Amino acid sequence: MDAWVDESIRTVGEPMYLLGASITSPESYDTAAEVLTRFAPRGNKLHWRDLGEAGKKPVIDAIPELCLHHVVVIGAPMIDIRQERARGRCFERLLWELDQAGVTKVVFESRTPHQDRTDRRRVDGLRGRGVITGELRAEWRRGAEEPLLWAPDIVLGALGDARVAGTELDARVAASIQEIVISL
Fold first, then answer.
1. What is the chain's percent helix, strand, coil content, to nearest 5?
2. DSSP assignments along 59-100, one per residue
3. Cα gap 14→40, rounded to integer Å
4. What is the pLDDT of residue 79?
5. What is the pTM (predicted TM-score) of this model?
């Protein structure tokens, strides 16, 4: 199984950090990538915050049909903790969960060269401490070039919007999410 990772920060009373992964089998990759690409602006990545209200509904309607399982780690409250520290705590828990689920490849959206190096060191450190096995490989790709990175962005965006608005997340999407809350 493979997983694609995205992140978000939301404020609902207290700020929280969300880090999520969408998991699929290699056999389901092509179909999921094709469906997600249909919604993306030509040559750009599909990004939840850029969709507008009218654009969000068809995208969220497509998510349950993609044979994806989503793992979301919510770090809260994000008070008196820097963003990268919060990300690191969520990162560790997410990778442990993915490793326990039998995921063998994790694809992260490339950020800056410095941030990518930090993430690589985090992965190496988790392996060194025995938090994850050596079987879990990590890769970094540009968001515009990897459609499956868009799936966790959509799920985190929809989940964050629902939390901010105090509404329920679409039940079809909620059923595919394993939500883990950690204390920061």
1. 50, 25, 25
2. HHHHGGGG--EEEEEEEE--SSS-HHHHHHHHHHHHHHHHHH
3. 32
4. 86
5. 0.92
